[in-house]
Amino acid sequence: MTIKTLLVHLDHDDPSARLDLAVSLARRHDARLIGLFAERAKAHTVGVVAHWPTPAYRAASADSRARFEAATAGLRAQWRDADRGGAAEVIRAVSAAAHTADLVILAQDAGDGQHHAAAPTGMAEQVVLNAGRPALVIPGSGRFTEVGRRPLIAWNNSREAARAVRDSLPLLRGADEVVVVSFAGKDGGEDDGGSADCLAYLADHGIAARAERLVVEGVGVMDMLLSRVSDCGADLLVMGGHGHYAFPHLPRGNGARHVLTHMTVPVLMSN
What is the pTM of this model? Predict the structure, then answer.
């Protein structure tokens, strides 16, 4: 797999971290970069007549375009306006635009209760689960101009994990260290996550990696995964975007949502 078309979601909630990384990746992979402005907004209503777009939306859109064009000077780049205001419409517009991109770059949710946020709540998760393309989700704090030097892969031999590994290959090439993590229950039973096969697959693509098998006891799988990301000093987490994420011997839960809520490094998810 190669990355030749990138899509970055833009809104007025400080998209600079997303845009900085998108520009860096576009340069690294000689890719075309599409910036899609899409955010929640209400139409201006006078009596029973609704007018769209509002002056505030037009101003935010114009500012987004100016920032994008300044940041992408010298690149093959295109700015677009989704021209939608409803939450469901914005999610559909971003998902549809992702259909013809190799990778879509999104922001982490602002969190529950942040109703003023420009992006709809849960958009990253919905794009991961429905767009059919890998998503690189960026934490709400921090700056990331490079990812993939020290990636950690969450592996459970599922279809989603397999797609995530394949989709991450362009980001893993040239990594300093790749760690493949699988989990077992507290009984310490045999690991049936297929880590050895995952290591061999990565080696086939010129990527050296090592495996870790963690025993979960007294803490949730996703919390242990996020803790291991921190302990390893990883700069990228690669995982399948399961609606109900499970490892061998372990109960199911909404792992994608939990990780997207508590992540501190960029996460590449595929479904």
Answer: 0.91
